Amino acid sequence: MTSRPAAFATFAAAFVGAAVIANRLAGKPVPFLRWSVIRFALGARRLLGEGQVGDGREEALAAHVTATARRGDIDDVIRAIDDFAHTRSFLMNVGDEKGEILDAAVRRARPALLLELGTYCGYSALRMARVMPPDATICTVEINPANEAIARGIWEHAGVGERITSVVGSIGDGGTTVARLRDEYGIDTGTVDFVFIDHLKSAYLPDLLRIVDEGWLHPGSVVVADNVRFPGAPDYLAHMRAEEGGRWRSTDHRTHVEYQRVLRDLVLESEYQG
């Protein structure tokens, strides 16, 4: 089994190498070959361990949103985040292209309760809040308290803070966060209609299995997973492939890594059959 440091180094090398190759093939600079992207790749160990690159881009994003987006306008806040990612610093949220896939999945599911694993700076929760039914709520789990605080500030600026609950923790922390979600936030048997997974890729499958074991899903619950191809969640994908036609029915959305159009990615949308 590949060690965690080796996996981080491989991810960083692959990201930078792919950027250089794509730039050469394109014959001109491509959007993601920027210093902020290279810093992102070189900071992969800290990023995947702590949830931040360490260069202050998340705090800069919060300041950018406050300075450039109209208060109470969720569309303008989403626009400001995308603008920051395209022109200032690369962000590891779902992004604008894949965000439309997430939007469509939420519209189809019409969920009352959404569970998100991986809040980061709150962008995907904003997108889901914008298209979910008026009486729906989101509960999102984030391991990094600084990210969670930034996300809450951004949601408040967008005017949707009351519809999104954030919890600092991890589904894989030995049961502490699972107990809090159940006891404090009302997530219980058959209550979760929609799950969006976009956190540590090696945690995708164990966290999904824990959610299933807890009985939180019901037939018809939808699970959407980002970055299944790049940087990749191979065990999660293999599990869903093996369960196809049984407990799960999945749809592949072939797309691109966030905020560029060269590196390919896969968003997997899966419906739980019970």
TrEMBL record:
EC number(s) on file: 2.1.1.-
Entry annotated with the keyword Glycoprotein: no
InterPro entries, sorted: SAM-dependent_MTases_sf, SAM_O-MeTrfase
SUPFAM superfamilies membership: S-adenosyl-L-methionine-dependent methyltransferases (SSF53335)
Example of a GO MF term: methyltransferase activity
GO biological process: methylation
Name listed for the protein in its UniProt record: O-methyltransferase
Organism of this sequence: Rhodococcus daqingensis
